[in-house]
Amino acid sequence: EPASMSGRYFAWVDGLRDWCISRQLWWGHRIPVWYSPDGDDMAFGPDETPPAGWTQDEDVLDTWFSSALWPFSTMGWPDDTAELRRYYPTTVLVTGYDILFFWVVRMMLFGLYAMDDVPFRTVLLHGLIRDSSGKKMSKSKGNVVDPLVWIDNYGADAVRLSLLQGANPGADQAVNEEWVVGARNFGTKLWNATRFALLNGATVEGELPASMSRADAWILSRLHSVIGEVDTLYERFEFAKIVDVLYHFAWDEVCDWYIELAKLTLDGAGGAATRRVLGEVLDTLLRLLHPMIPFVTEELWTALTGRESIVVAPWPLADATRANAAAETYVRMLQEVVTEVRRFRSDQGVKPSRRIPATIAGAVDEADVRALCRLDPPGESFTATGTVSLANGVEVSFDLSGVIDVAAERDRLRKTLAAATKELESNRAKLANPAFTEKAPDAVIGKVRERVAAAESDLARIEAALAALPET
């Protein structure tokens, strides 16, 4: 892996050339060739004694010659040992693509010669680690990164995770200290989520409840979908994609949404079910993340479960019966409603902590929306001064009378509208200029088009916010 490297492999094999196997080094396997005083030469094995007066070659075998012996010479060859029968051939060899010929091809040749079988079934070739600009690290350039410094500053898990984020088979990857900081922050997010669970009595004991909230059913459905996705990616050695899947599931779905939804039921009749589901989700998530960030997950998992070690915990298995399309559809709808209501509040300048009266219509749990968006029931004097209508049929109307300074908010929105209009016109002008579109790289033109689309979206949003302001 990747399959694209197979052409390079067979080019070496099919076009083999003579190879100088001697090196003038102090360390290594000394070449087993002896020379007679008359200039004759002969190879002698370990159980043979050269004639008197013969001298051994002073050179050693090339490092790659010795390394090519590794798959079988380390396990007792040429004797027929139990280790050799068990571990030859091995399953996967992991190495850098830059030594495909120096090591991989030569192990293959030696294995076929000495063992009549290949030394491994799959070769996983990883790329080189480069600096943040994609350049090869060099002491003379001064762009070498010392991972021990980053480990001291941010922890071994953060460094490990940041490297795995770019670990696509066969591809080089750049490293950047900011990415290590982001990985450290992810560990902190997991720590806080587990702390919340422990403080609220989350448990891993007992069977999962037969009856649970839609939020609980949703997160279990998503969890088992993620398990299946991660297993498939492991089979393809797509480590960067595994990190991406688990990172976004943990941060976006578990921490940002499920924990907030769990708070709505923890103190109610469904509290026991939610505590069990919360424990199950974090227990499984930590096991899925353990190969990526072993130290943090070990600490959190043992605290959560009270068990010996995550190292010996079984790998999670996907359970297709946990799939719940209805719960996933409902939570997606709830997420859309909450996101749009929060955006409306922000656009209108309403502080996040401020409660405002609103009416809610549509196939969504009114209590969920009110709790997540800080919305009060409408009073007798309620007058709708703004409405959010969603494609899923949900409509939320607000009464902002006395909540905001309408004149000041209108002035703020008009200034924001002017800035968005200027941004849109500037980027449209670039796209209309042949001198730019004919010379600029496609990637640059694509960025400008993205800015145009973003500015158009901003304009529509700001104009809607202005129209929603109550009359003064």
Layout: helices, strands, pairs:
Layout: H1 6-14, E1 22-23, E2 33-35, E3 41-43, E4 55-56, E5 60-61, H2 63-68, H3 70-73, H4 82-87, E6 90-96, H5 100-115, E7 120-126, E8 129-130, H6 147-154, H7 156-164, E9 173-174, H8 177-199, H9 214-235, H10 239-262, H11 271-289, H12 294-305, H13 325-347, E10 356-361, H14 366-373, E11 375-376, E12 386-389, E13 395-398, H15 406-431, H16 434-437, H17 442-468
Parallel strand pairs: 6-7, 8-9, 10-11
Antiparallel strand pairs: 1-5, 2-3, 2-4, 10-13, 12-13
Largest sheet: 4 strands, mixed
Tell how many strands the DSSP assignment holds: 13
Order of helices and strands: HEEEEEHHHEHEEHHEHHHHHHEHEEEHHH
Which strand-content bin applies to the residues? 5-15%
Query: Which residue ranges are poorly predicted, with pLDDT under 50 across at least 5 consecutive positions?
Result: none
What would your notes on this structure say?
The protein is of the alpha/beta class. The protein has helices at residues 6-14, 63-68, 70-73, 82-87, 100-115, 147-154, 156-164, 177-199, 214-235, 239-262, 271-289, 294-305, 325-347, 366-373, 406-431, 434-437, 442-468; strands spanning 22-23, 33-35, 41-43, 55-56, 60-61, 90-96, 120-126, 129-130, 173-174, 356-361, 375-376, 386-389, 395-398. The protein has a four-stranded mixed β-sheet. Strand 12 and strand 13 (395-398) form a beta hairpin. The mean pLDDT is 88.
